[in-house]
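Much of what follows relies on a compact textual record of a protein's fold. A complete example follows; check for yourself that the lines match position by position.
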Amino acid sequence: MATVLEDLARGIDVALEGQDAPALRGYLESIALLSRADVSKVERGSLAFFEANIHAALRIHADSTSADWLEPLLEAEIRALRVARLALADESTRTLRNDLKLRVITNLANALNRSGRFVEAIELWDEVLAEHPRFGMAMGNKALALYGYARYAGTGIERALLLRANYRTVKAAMEAGVESHASAQISDLAAHISSVADWENAEVPLPVFDAGRSKRERQYRRWCVRHRTVLSLINDVEFSVEALQDAVTLPSITMAVGEARDLMPRPYAIFNQLKQEYVSARYLVFEALCERDDKLHFSDRGVVLFDALDYRYYRTWIEKLKMAFLALHAIFDKIAYLVNEYWKVGMETRRVSFGSVWHSGGRGSQELSTPFAGSDNWPLRGLYCLSRDFHLKPVGEGAVDPEAKVLNEIRNHIAHKYLRVHDHVLYDAKGDRERNGDELGYAISDQELEHQVMKLLKLARSALIGLNCAVAHEEVARGRSLEEKGPVAPMELFVVKDRHRL
């Protein structure tokens, strides 16, 4: 297989250099025909990386634009890079030179950013830079994304912190060196950012937030910040516990007179509920993981159960993870209700879901609803792209997220059937699934459940911040349109003080 891979790499490089689309499509067919039976994980990762590069080249050759919401070649590129990342993340690949892994993760971040998922992209670039601080292309692409991200900051301090991080990243990228095709763009950005302010000497005061008096609360705040789960744009560039709170709120919304049917416009009410459900689920996750190594919880004592002899967990902390998983999964459909309301999609409430709200014909349709067709709303497009991750394609096509089926199975089995959680050391849950494929019960290890819950937690944060940014983008155009029709009067909304919360 090593010789086959070397031949493929040489041939693909020649085709890429010559922009030979027919040859590239031929290599895609060759990769698809290769048997995976005797392929190592490193080789599987390499093949998926080749495949992703071909899809990227064909996409560029096809002259698609970032305004195209549905880009099959971009989705295929993202899926291949995710397959490569999963293969190369295995323990058995630790002896592999990090260069391939770093390129896979960098390219995945680039592709996600193109699709509007900049929050996830920034974390991936930071993952690369943690291992290789002078990886120029990761720094360069992160800098470009941070500049776009700063446009949606709700306060001057947020924007200044993002732009300062942008300046530092641009400067580091230029010192480390980027590929020739990107150097001009990075240089232009550096010149523009430097003209905005003297970032070398600028002092940007961090927000001040009481991180709590109890040891438990401070531990919780540190955990939230470290895992980037705070609903704050600056948690992507700053990690001071005292500076971060869940400050993301919808921006000012311009509405026609009589449009607000309630005391508070409905989008704000929905977003309030989404935030509360998110932070409550987040605390459940934190609490569960803290209790994982504790002694048996008193609520579990005296519960008579039969031993299934398969090292299965019957613990309160596992049930908390399950409850958090369901709560987080439900947030995405609730985001769709806000999208339907704010963008006036007009879909019947009973038909609204995160997968269906974007299409005029519902989930099965590929035609975008009128409010989205031709829109240049980058964050909103990111939400659409995220919805595609949850959409399971017909067998054989492959979902955009290779783990989509696992997420779907976990949700279905927690809510409707039964999920069996086993000790990851003493029981092979994955092997059980592959061997038995039990429709009623789904076997999973405690580590797998933790991984999927944390993944869902981060996706929910990304979606809520993306929703906030999408509304901010929309309001720029919407505000101008309504101002042309007549005077605009402010409606004041009051923040609920912690001591006054019911």
Observations:
- The mean pLDDT is 86.
